[in-house]
Amino acid sequence: MSFSSNVKAELCKDSLSKKSCAVAEGYGVLLYCNTFSSTEIRIITESRDFAARLPRLFKKAFGITFDQEPAAQDRGKLQFAISSEDKIAKIFETLQMDLKASLTLHVNFGMLEEEAECMAYLRGAFLAGGSVTDPAKRYHLELTTSHYKVSRETCALLLDAGFSPKETTRGGNSILYFKQSNLIEDFLTAIGAPVCAMGVMEAKVEKDLRNGVNRRVNCETANLTKVVDASMEQVAAIRKLQKRGQLKDLPPKLRETAKLRLENPEATLQELAAMQDPPVSKSAMNHRMRKLVALADES
User: How many angstroms separate the CA atoms of 60 and 14, rounded?
Assistant: First the structure.
């Protein structure tokens, strides 16, 4: 199952114990489903958990059954439909909507005054028109509806609830989305999927840990490269002095340093400094190496 499917499965575990919340959730489903008009309601989903919840949700919220439901053996996209005038009229009455008026859909804020009802509405909107990307890949959660005003008013609801969604359009649909992991975590927790929210958090921690390890490895690799490059330069300089017969004329300390470097080409300056007799500081060893390189560069 995809991460989005897991989220919807967790959301569908809600018990539907309070009718006002069931109505609010059904409201979100209708405003974010495939078709919601005065003549037809059509909900299409690939989530079997959501499909199992829908008949119970509509019975609890509106006291009605669907005219069309998918068969138990159906796979892929599962379709629910209502075309009965009486049933649609009952839904409109429950949602305090005028069946005869020109249908430009809006969010009735009066039905979502309580926080629990607002979150139930958002849960329904996500179940019908939402998706979230696997956080191991990237952070992206969106709510998609074909109704522009519904999207704008849902955005206002989210802002009032402390969220800051971004807005865009795609293929004639209006989309609200989050790309910050912390906002996705908070949103999923608020609408009833705290376990999946924890999954987002764990994915972020794992990414941060992996990135931190990569940064350290890259840093250590860069430092090692510098050490190797410096050692090669120093060995080349000492070989040049050796070829010219100048090593034997160097002061004893420089001769010892040159000898140690030739014998230990992979050692760091700190390690070479400890090999001196008596040991010297890394700074002193660095100064001697610079002196050898400078002497070799003299024509």
Answer: 13
